[in-house]
């Protein structure tokens, strides 16, 4: 069931779940259709069944989340002229869709490559980045969000099976199969998701190459609550426009100002009733310059 909570939503569990972000979005210029797909809580036996099936213990904050709502999906759009454009999307898979990344062959052929075969082991841990996940048995990886095809946010168990709750981290896997560390805990990731307003490609702000120029335009218009100017630092040769939402979405009804017209001189001059053409001082012909 879809719900669009009005300002000052009377459902305390939705207000708690969204951290009050709906009121901020609804008060932003141009934002429309702020929608939450309300989902019932997961039952405890569903969580126990998932843990037994996958031989992994869920962290307590993940369990508490699913006991509040079995997944999360919140979207919002913007209205430009007469068109409504879907923009923000915040999603976390339900526990039934919290599935392990496919480690089978890319193609259903004998000896076809797997994700583990495509892995690049040259980039290991550094001072600023912990050891990255692995596609083989060294890590167990579950998909939290498909990011609308821009990558995958994953719950990663770093020590393989049997997997313990304290060995989890949240990572972002981009479309080129490179890993980028996001947070140590699910709670911290959920706050990032909400405070970045579900803006397109926001996960790429935590990569070395950053978000695309198109996404940067939306970031400039709807700045995340955890806005970091360093993430959006522009190069000196960048030509990204600076957009002002108050100007973009303001009324386009303009007051027409009549243009002043000078005296129109017909070709050949204006003949009087008795014959010769008029030689008015306002004439600007080459033979009769205007004197000031």
TrEMBL record:
Residues 250-292 are annotated as: Disordered. It comes from the Eukaryota. Residues 41-184 form the Knr4/Smi1-like domain. Residues 277-292 have a biased composition (Low complexity). Residues 250-262 have a biased composition (Basic residues). PANTHER family: TUBULIN POLYGLUTAMYLASE COMPLEX SUBUNIT 2 (PTHR31854). This is Tubulin polyglutamylase complex subunit 2. It comes from Canis lupus dingo.
